[in-house]
Amino acid sequence: MIHFIKNEQQVKAVNACLQQSRFILLLVRKGEVQLKMNTDMILVQARELLILPEDKSCTIKGLGNRSHIGILSFTRAFAFGNATRNLQPVFFMFLMAGKPFRIQLRPKDMSWLFLLFILLRVKNNTAEIPGTDGEVLQLGFDILLWELRRLYRYYSPGITVTYTIKHALVLHFLDMLNTHYKSQHQIQFYANALHLTADYLSKTIKQVTGKTAKQFVKDSILREAKVLLQEHLSIQGISRMLGFNSTQDFSKFFKTHTSLSPTAYRKKLSPQNSK
């Protein structure tokens, strides 16, 4: 969820969101905002970025004159679901930090980050081009993660992140999935490779990421299928490339998770249908 706040009337709806178990990015473009986090009062001023982990809820207690605040909040399940496979490990930097991160940004860093907030807000709320806005939202979120990692490294070069055994396990799973998702759709394959039971692997992934192992496999296949359906490839060929035994199996899988057959999805992407 993304909110832009300029006056006190907009604060109430935002405070309800800030009480949920979400990661929160608060960026002050102009003015200042007073927050209550647990029992502490915090004043965040112009060009400051505050990143709160999901267990640190806060409440806006006041705004300065002519303030302009951007707030982005998301669950870990959203992060792992929308970050591309290569960027999912980047998110662990924020997931495992476990404490608030506050920095005073240079003007150019603040402007660029605020533009990313606007892009994500627009693509989260509209669907102007059928079939593509989801990809743009994902790309925007990827760029946001890259930018946050750059800011961490630039403003806090000495920051270190220690991986727990469970976090390392999830990273291994994601790395394997990136290599084998087209040919291996069963969780048992990944569990065997990691010398674990499928039940333990699934529970650990759910606990750390908020998503099940099956969801990760499904999302990887769907993401690739949507890309391939934009190419001049036959449905039969795509089915084989994604490890399905038949075109019927692939079509059933795709329609179950998108409500469209592969052919209908492809037609929806055509220029004639976007006018």
UniProtKB/TrEMBL annotation:
SMART domains: HTH_ARAC. Signal peptide: none annotated. The keyword DNA-binding applies. Pfam families: HTH_18. The keyword Metal-binding does not apply. Residues 171-268 form the HTH araC/xylS-type domain. This is AraC family transcriptional regulator. The lineage of its organism: Bacteria, Pseudomonadati, Bacteroidota, Flavobacteriia, Flavobacteriales.
